[in-house]
Amino acid sequence: MTLPTRASRRSFVVASVGAALALGAGGTAHARGRSPFGRYGSPTARLDERTLYVHPGGLGDHTTVQAAVTAASGTGHTLVIAPGTYRETVAVSAARTELTWLGASEDARDVVIVYDNANGTQKPDGSGPYGTTGSATTTVQADGFTARDITFANDWLRADHPEITGTQAVAIKVQGDRSAFLHCRFLGHQDTLYADSIALTAFARQYFAHCYVEGDVDFVFGRATAVFEHCHFRTLERTDLAGAPYGFVFAPSTAVANPRGCLVTDSRVTSEAPDAYYKLARPWVPGSDSTARPMLTVRETRLGAGIDAVEPYTNMSAGYPWQSQRFAEYRNSGPGAEITVPANRPQLTRAEAASHTRRTYLGDWAPWSREGC
Hints:
Elements: H1 8-15, H2 18-24, H3 28-31, E1 51-54, H4 65-71, E2 78-81, E3 84-87, E4 90-92, E5 100-103, E6 111-115, H5 131-134, E7 138-140, E8 146-148, E9 151-154, E10 172-174, E11 179-182, E12 185-187, E13 193-195, E14 205-209, E15 212-215, E16 217-222, E17 225-229, E18 232-235, E19 247-252, E20 262-265, E21 268-271, E22 278-281, E23 295-299, E24 302-303, E25 326-330, H6 350-353, H7 358-362
C-alpha cells in the first residue's frame, strides 16, 4: 500500500474510508441488500443481547462509538462498527471489561476513529492544555479489551499549529491488562501508540498482531508489557527538520520491577525518510517514575535503511543512558540491522532469546490462539 506524506496524512485518513461510507449510508452495495455490518448481524438480527451496532448514518443502535461504549455498561459487550470516519474522542472506563470492537467490513482502512488534539491544545473550558494523555483520540482503561480491523488515528499536524510547542498527539492510550489489537492500524506523528498501564505497579499485558503503526517521534511508547508480532512500523518524512535524526520508533518506560517490557518479533520497519534518519529507540524515564528501566527486545525483524545502523539507540536524557537500560536484539535483518559497531547493538544469545517470546512475556494469556491471529 502506497502511503502519503506530511500534510496529506489527514486527507488520507478521510479518503481511505470514502467508498466504505457509501456502502454504509445507502450506497450501491447497501442498495443491493448487503448489510453495513457484514457478517456480524444487525440490530434486527443480533449476534447476542450484548452486541451493539454503530453506524454513522443511523442504521445501527448508535451513531457514535462513544455513545455505544456508554451504553455497554458492565462486562462482555461487543460493538460492531460500520464503515465510516468517526471524528470523536472515545474513553473506555475500567468498569467496561471484556469489551470487543469489530470493524464490520473486516478491513481496518474502512473504520477510522480520529480526532486532532495535541499536548498543547487548549481545552475548551479554559483550564489549560490537554497534555499528552489528554490528547488521546481513544483511551482504554478496561481489562480484556479487544479491537479488530479498526484504525485509530490522531491527525493533528505541526504545520497547522506553529504556535503549539507540545506536539505530542496520541492516537490511542491503552492501560488495561489483556488488551489485544488484531489487524488494526495506528496513525499519527508524535506519540501515536501509548502502551501503558493503569498504575505504576500494574504490569499490563498487551498484544498487537498484524498491525500497522506509523509516526515520527517516540511513536510506540509506554510502560506496558507489549508484544508486537507480524507488525509493520513506518517512519514518516519530515520537512520541518534540516537533518537527522527525524525521530525514534520506540520509547519504552518499563518499571524497574517489571521483568518484561516491549517485545517486537517477526515484524518490519520501513521509512519514507532518507536512509539512517531514524533511531530504533531511546529510553524514556518519566518524571513520575525516575527508577524506570526501559526494556525493548527486537528479534527476527527486518529493519529498513531508514534506521541508523551505526547508532540505532540514543538517549532521551543524559542522566539515563541507553546502555544502562534493557535494550537487545536477536537475528534481525535488513540494512538497518547491520552490525557495524558491536558495542552499539547489544545482541541476545540463543539461550537468552528463549526467554524473550510472546509466551514468556504474556504468561497464561494466549491471545494469538484466537481465530485468524
